[in-house]
DNA sequence: TACGATTATTTATTGCACGATATAAATTCC
DNA sequence: GGAATTTATATCGTGCAATAAATAATCGTA
C-alpha cells in the first residue's frame, strides 16, 4: 500500500493531536484561573500589552473579530477586562485589563514552566522546535493569502 | 521584562496557530468532499482499515467515544459510513465504509500533496518535523496519564 | 456631502470536546 | 450458577470555538 493516505505520516495529524495533548495539559491549570485556552492566550497578549484593540488582538492571535467579540465579552463578564470604545476613533473598541485581570498574571506566571516540564525537553530544544513550527505556520499562512 | 509570559515564546501558541493555519489550507479542499477536518481524519483512518470499532477509532485519533459518536453519525447521514453493532460482541459498534465512502478516497488522494506543497518544505524535512511533533505529543500525553 | 473603506457587533449555524451518567455485555470470583 | 466487577459504548447536557453574513457606526476622502 502506498503510504500516501496514512494517518501516521500526516503532519496535520501530528499538529492536531499535539494541540489536543497540550490542551489536556493546560486544562487543569487553566481551570484554576477560570480561563479557557483561547481566553488564556488573549490574556497573555494583554499582559504583554494592555489596551489593545479588538482588531489588534485578532491580528496577534490569528482570530477574526467575530470570534474574539464573544470571547472578550466572557472575559468581561468574568471581570478580567473592560471593553471601552475609543475616543479618537469610535469604530474601535479598546480592551483594558481590570485590577483583577492584572492580578491574575501572578497566578499564571508558573504555567509555562509546567508545560515545559511536561514536554520533557530543555528550554533550548523547545525554543528550536517552537521556531520550526512557527515557520511552518508562516509558510501555510502565506500559501492561503 | 522577563519573557516568561510572552506569547511568541509559547510552544503552545505555535502549535495552536499552526493548527489553525493548517485548517485554513484544508478547508477549501475538504469542502469539496463535504467533510470537516476531524471527519476527514476519521475517514483516512477507515480507508487505512475498514471495519474499526468506535473505541478503536478513538484510540487512533485520541478522541473520546462521546466525541466520535456524533461525528460518525454525521458521516453516516452523509452516506459515507454505516454503523453496525457487532455480532460477536454486542457492546461494540463497527464502522464500515459505504460504497460512496470508498469512492471518496479517490477524491482525497491528492490532498496530502497539496498540504505538503503549501508547507513549502521537501518530504524529508516534513517527515522529520512531523516526527518531532509526534514526540512532543507523546511526552505530553505521558505526563497527563 | 456623498461614497467607499474600516471596524466591530449581531445573529445564526455548525461542530468539537468532554464530563457525567446510564446501559449492557463479558468476565471473574465466590 | 449467580453476583459483582470490568469494559465498552451510548446518551445527555454544557460550553465554547469558529465562521459567515448582514448590519451599523464611523472615518477619510473625493
UniProtKB/TrEMBL annotation, chains A, B:
SUPFAM superfamilies: Winged helix' DNA-binding domain (SSF46785)
GO molecular function, one term: DNA-binding transcription factor activity
Protein's name in the database: MarR family transcriptional regulator
Keywords of this entry: Cytoplasm, DNA-binding, Transcription, Transcription regulation
Keyword Signal attributed: no
PANTHER family, alphabetized: ORGANIC HYDROPEROXIDE RESISTANCE TRANSCRIPTIONAL REGULATOR (PTHR33164:SF5), TRANSCRIPTIONAL REGULATOR, MARR FAMILY (PTHR33164)
PROSITE patterns attached to this UniProt entry: HTH_MARR_2
Pfam families in the record: Staph_reg_Sar_Rot
Residue stretches making up the HTH marR-type domain: 8-145
CC terms in the record's Gene Ontology section: cytoplasm
Localisation per UniProt entry: Cytoplasm
UniProt xrefs under InterPro entries: HTH_MarR-typ, MarR/SlyA-like, Transc_reg_Sar_Rot_HTH, WH-like_DNA-bd_sf, WH_DNA-bd_sf
Keyword DNA-binding listed: yes
BP GO terms, sorted: response to stress
Top-level taxon in the UniProt lineage: Bacteria
